[in-house]
């Protein structure tokens, strides 16, 4: 069934690249479905190729990869970690779990990424790390951010859930931080339902990361014959995915170029098809600064206000198009207020864009007829 046979064009749909069933059968027949099997190794190798990371550890989710990064940073209660307010809660929750205080910074009005001009004012003598999110896969201003982190001795972590395959001045996203976290959740460009990876660009972290991922044991060394028994040597948890999930992920990663080019063509069709309508209606389309290649993770529009955004979503739904709003500010969320604090100046841009933003359907299986239907439905809306 093609997408256009559906009465409603869904916001997202799992893309099947073709080899999944074959690989899943292989994974089931290989005699063990535990983690760190052949498909886990293959998926990690493919990810290393895309991101240039020195070491890739597949995890059960991006949330867990972020939690591993928090353990690796040895955060202590009261340490501060600067995060954007406009992001998924895991970006902050991972550090709050270690007793650290998330400090919420505002985003840039154009890219909706952490505003590098506000970063330095958020640094205190308790700050230990900065976590950036490349929203929609469009890079943060990495030159300025890296320079500020270096000058203040802060660790940089990339929550690269949106950015796989994107780049900043020719360098892959995920290669800037000491660590980067990827997501393979069913809503991301490359998927296995639930899954993630921790990318390590600092080779010194690799040995401890492996232990943390294996419940705090040196089991990896034991399987390699480097120790004669494995023991509990550090804190950790169970962050290793089954090789069955890695089989699905491998199939998608092998088809990465096709997935990306299909998503890019949907993105471009929206961007071109909606340019005149957006200009007439005071709607803002995504901004992509020079030097940023993005992986078409999502296509968003900024309506003039909340009333128009809500009316627009209802208008599209009535025409069989499922659109979605996105992140609600973390600094004013119940847990954000309790566990974190807001950076000087507050987060006025985050508050405003959270109310105005809407995302259109975007997935690799969305065909031309489906895209045309979405565009037609959008063009029929007039901002009031
Ligand atoms: C999806 C997402 C996550 C969480 O990913 P999971 O793999 O579901 O844990 C974290 N951060 C951002 C920015 C995301 O988009």
Biggest pleated sheet? 8 strands, mixed
**Relative helix content:** 25-40%
Overall mean pLDDT score? 96
Q: What sequence of helices (H) and strands (E) makes up the elements?
A: HHEHEHEHEHEEEEEHHHHHEEHHEHEH
Counting DSSP H or I runs of 4 or more residues, the number of helices is 15
Task: Could you tell me the CATH topology label of the largest domain.
Answer: Aspartate Aminotransferase, domain 2
Ions, cofactors and other bound molecules: pyridoxal-5'-phosphate
Provide the low-confidence segments as ranges.
none
What's the β-strand tally?
13
Main structural class: alpha/beta
Briefly summarize what is shown.
One of its GO terms (molecular function) is pyridoxal phosphate binding. The chain is α/β, with parallel strands linked by helices and 384 residues long.
Could you explain how this protein is built, in words?
- With 384 residues, the protein is an alpha/beta fold.
- It has two domains: 3-11 and 256-379, Aspartate Aminotransferase, domain 1 (Alpha-Beta Complex), CATH 3.90.1150; 20-254, 3-Layer(aba) Sandwich (Aspartate Aminotransferase, domain 2), CATH 3.40.640.10.
- It is built from 15 helices and 13 strands.
- The protein has helices spanning 20-29, 38-51, 62-72, 90-96, 116-122, 142-152, 206-213, 219-223, 243-254, 256-273, 275-281, 306-318, 334-339, 348-356, 368-379; strands spanning 55-59, 80-84, 101-105, 127-133, 155-159, 167-168, 171-172, 179-183, 196-200, 292-293, 299-302, 341-342, 357-360.
- The strands form three sheets. An eight-stranded mixed β-sheet has the order 1-9-8-5-4-2-3-12, with helices on both faces.
- Strand 2, helix 4 (90-96) and strand 3 (101-105) form a beta-alpha-beta unit.
- It is globular, with a radius of gyration of 21 Å.
- The relative contact order is 0.18.
- The structure holds pyridoxal-5'-phosphate.
- The site of pyridoxal-5'-phosphate has 14 residues, from helix 3 and helix 4.
- Pyridoxal-5'-phosphate binds at residues 61-63, 87-88, 90-91, 133, 159, 161-162, 183, 185, 196.
